[in-house]
Amino acid sequence: MTDTEPGGTQPNAADDAGRLWCGRFDAVLSTLSQAEPGYPFGSVVPYCLDQGGRPLLLLSHLAQHSHNLVADSRCAFTVFDGAGGDVQQSRRLTCTADCEAANDALDLARYCRHFPRGQAYVRELGFRLFRLLPRRFHYNGGFATARWLGADRLLPPSPFAAGADAQLLASLRADHGDWLDRYRAVGTDAPVQPIGIDRWGLTVHDGARLLRLESPTPMDGPPTLRAAIEADALRPVTSASIG
What we know:
The protein is α+β, with helices and mostly antiparallel strands.
């Protein structure tokens, strides 16, 4: 089934796929092996999304996937629902992509907001930041729901102004600190900080874990986000340790 073929899929497949894409913190990166030419090489990597919804990866120059990407930038990137239940009935999303170096300081700052250890990895171990440029997506939301989706369907322009997200996130902490601190993990006392925002939700951390708060409907800018917070409409869907 192609992007334009009707039938056989849920009408909200692109929205479901978008929530999954924005709501995970790690994925399977598949590169073209240089050690075993012609064979794919899979590895698990943490990631966050840049302003345009494209994955940012912090990779060691010693890693096999880094060697592979330097030789051939083509790759695939797969995200999926967490463990539990029948995996064949759960959501999974794969994109084919090209990889490029990401040299923008704002991108590195964004990545390190999500994964603070990244600062030490760059400074002490020479890790480098990369960006994936998705070409096409294949989404499977369960039995008989698989379909291809164009990148334009999952990566629409962000409703949040480029370069202004840090200011917006700081204002959310100042204005809605009590609401945010409700999501503090048991045993921690650090204030919960908002660190990432997109049309499908808000990502926060409490110093020990990342937590994804998902919106039931797409948000079209700061007023919609604040309205969702005030209505207590955001719901936790995914968490990951960063300690």
